[in-house]
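Q: Could you predict the 3D structure of TolC family protein?
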Amino acid sequence: MKNIKIQILTVLFCILSMGMQSQNTLSLSQAIEMGLQNNYDLKVTRNNENIASINNNWGNTGALPTVSFSAGLSENLNYNDNEDYRTESLSPQVSLNWLLFDGFSARITKKRFEELENLSKGNTVILVENTIQDIISAYNNCIVQQELVKVYDELMSLSEDRYNRELSGKEIGVSTTYESLLAKTSWLSDKSTYLQQKVSYENSIRTLNFILGIKDNTMWQLTSEIKSDLPDYTLSDLSNKLISNNTTLKNQYINQTLLSKETALAKSNYLPTISLNGGVSQTNRNTYFSKTSANDTETNFSDVNVGLNISYTIFNGGQRKRSVQIAKIEEESGLVEIDQMKHSLQNQLMQIFSTYEVQKELVVLANEQEEAAKLNMDMAEEKLKNGSIDSFDFRAIQINYLNAAIQKLNATYNVIESQTALTRITGGIVDEY
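A: Sure. Here are the predicted structure tokens for TolC family protein:
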């Protein structure tokens, strides 16, 4: 019975351990989803988008009427030689004010609110794109740092095996103290580098957690790999996508629309305004005499008023003309800024594209160099065992392999960064990820 309990507890422990491990696994898609939900900047930007949506209302344009209610209650005491009396008055009133026409400014203002909401949504999209790009960069950096840990661990193991062989050879007289000390120095150096790299990897995970908005110190088991497929692009296709899909450029177009609305608002001041006002009021007045109640009186009367006002500014010192002139100049400046942004984005695109094309070739070279260095180190290890090469040559070959492995990882990381930047600047990063 006791053995059965132990077996059950063992199974439960294994299940719990597997559950904890599965909870700590993180793929790139999961990281992006988590980051878009928890990112601090995105939370603020989404709130700003909600504010813009709330402001996009006809009630903020002045096009809807204003209805108000007021009431007054008063009591007067009169002291006379013949007879005192008291008067109570109650006067409720409902008023209406409605701007019927204001030179189409209400309609223009409503259009501005719609464009401001679109601009707020565009700002959210930009931040989403930036967040996705940051998550991809941070996640891939974690993979690179993790792979470097494996490389340094492999070198440390080789150095430790070599040191142990030197110690064994020293005991039987086939190795010298100098050789064992040299092997020990290499092993300790590789172990130190390995420990430092573990810290770098852990710090990269912490950086990823911050971008994802995770407050606890979760050490993820990364399940995604750095993409190995490197698609071929043409600059003309990328340029067309940039002009049609780049979110920053789309936002600039919205800004230009807002500037045109400002010009329309300035022109609307040349038109008259028509307003309607009206109201209904009723007054109830009661008078009470202190001696003769028969003289008490009660008076009720109502009042209804309706008015239509038309106003037009004949001259205000040329303020309307100057406002229109300034709005037109700002609209022209907006067009210049659009051209500047197009030029800047095209220039960035060409730079990123050229870098990507070169980095694709560097990845191929780095892979070949790493494979050759790995093969050379494996062969050198056998030569070291049979005495064909000395410790200095073997150490140089080890360092050469280390540099080749680091170069391969960096080249792979850099080309993915460039590819992500291309996808980002052409407006396709949200759809792709």
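Q: Anything worth pointing out?
A: The two ends are 54 Å apart (CA to CA).
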